[in-house]
Every structure is written in structure tokens, then in C-alpha cells.
Amino acid sequence: MTDDSLIHDPDGGLPRLLRIMQRLRDPETGCPWDIEQDFATIAPYTIEEAYEVADAIERQDWPELEGELGDLLLQVVYHSQMANEAGLFSFDSVTRRVSDKMVARHPHVFGDESRDKSAEQQTLDWERIKAAERAASAQGGVLDGVAVGLPALLRAVKLQKRAARVGFDWPDVTQVLDKIVEEAAELTEARDTLSQAEIEEEFGDLLFVMANLARHLDIDPEAALRGANAKFVRRFHYIEQELAARGSSPAQSDLAEMDALWNAAKRRDKAAKADG
């Protein structure tokens, strides 16, 4: 008979979670759904959980963050269990590898290097160590190792940072702004004369340069867009509330009325910032 005492121990900690995953994946007594999964089918959940962690932080919902971090940890345990079953690696080897990496990348904390350096210098040292690691792992190209599965805006910034390290970069933000104007003009022309696929390509070029502008301005484009999304939601909620107070709704309104309410929401936001 299987001993599940650890599974039911609320103070079992990480060993408890590891044991739970082992049981879920047991081919004879586990959960049919969990048994059927593989790395590819679980990967989307891993990405989703990482975004839910970021969302909880954005909302400063700390109890929610506690739960989301647990869900994200479960993803690491899940992948590690599947790898262990396939003889690839184990949870212990995962923790050992990341621990070794952190020690190697912080010689100013765990080695004999001085801690008396700026955050900028520490970032340069970090990138130098990472470049040496890539060289040791036979990732010879400058852009090798930038994960394809990253959000597109984030990957664009990472690709551009890599290229900039070897001098492939505009030296001034003005040139980036000029390029945005150029790409916007090409997109406008494409809209009227080219195919849908070509229009999409020009749109992608414009987004790529926008990501470059974000990098030059030291802006996280993902965070900036999340902020813009949140602002849109907040202002549209204001429109809905004001229309409801008039006995109406967006579907019963028109663009002129909603645009006026949108401008009122903007004024409210500006007043709130001024008071803050």
C-alpha cells in the first residue's frame, strides 16, 4: 500500500510537493490527465502562470501573489518530474544548476571580487559572464540563445541589446525616431498598395523599431503596454459607469458621446496625478 503520509502533512514543505507530483504522474495510481501530459502540453501553462505572477505584482495583491508563486513553482516541479521519468534530469539537478549559476555570476558576493562597483558595472560584468557561458556551450552567434518563445516585444529588445553589444546600433535616439517615421510611412503606403501579408510585415517592422525606441529610452515595452492597457480599461469603465447613470450603455451610445466621456476620464486621471 502506498504511504501518502507526507502528502497529507501540511508542514511537509517542498518534499511534500515533489511527492504529490510523483503520485499524480504514477502510471498505475495517478491522475489520467496528468499522466498524459508532456513538456509541450504543459509549457503553455508555465507561461500563463508566469504572467499571473506578474499580474498579482502589478495589482499589489500579496495574498494572490503567494498563491500564484505556488502555481509557478508547481510548473517547475511538473517539468522536473517528467524529465526525471525520461532520464533527462531531476529537480535536484535543476536546483544545483541554478545555484551554481548564481554563485558563478556573483563573484563580488561569493568570490574574491570587490563589491565596490556601480550597478551599471555589475550589469556589464553579468553580461560578460553570460557571454563566456554562451561561448562555452558552443552558442557562437551573437543572437544565439535568445529564446524564441519569449513575448515578441521582449525578444525584440533582447535581440537588439545583443546586436548593440557588437556595435550594431543607432548611437542616438533621434535616429530611432526618424526610423519610426520612415516605417510608419511605409506601412501607410503598404495599406493602399500591398497584400495583407506585406502589410503585416511592415507593421512588424514598425513594432520592432518601437521596441528599439523603448530600449534607447530605458523603458520596458511590455510594462509600458500593460500600463496602457490598464489605463484603457480604467477609462472605458468610466464611460460605462457614466452611461449607466444616464440609463444608457455603450451599445446604445454613439462615438461622439463616448469620446466626450473618454476626455472627461482623461481629465480625471490628470487631476488625480496632480493631487498625488
UniProtKB/TrEMBL annotation:
SUPFAM superfamilies: all-alpha NTP pyrophosphatases (SSF101386). Residues 37-110, 176-235 form the NTP pyrophosphohydrolase MazG-like domain. The keyword Glycosyltransferase does not apply. It is an enzyme of class 3 (hydrolase). Its EC number is 3.6.1.9. Keywords: Hydrolase. It comes from the Bacteria. GO terms for molecular function: nucleoside triphosphate diphosphatase activity. PANTHER family: NUCLEOSIDE TRIPHOSPHATE PYROPHOSPHOHYDROLASE. This is Nucleoside triphosphate pyrophosphohydrolase. It comes from Seohaeicola saemankumensis. The gene is mazG.
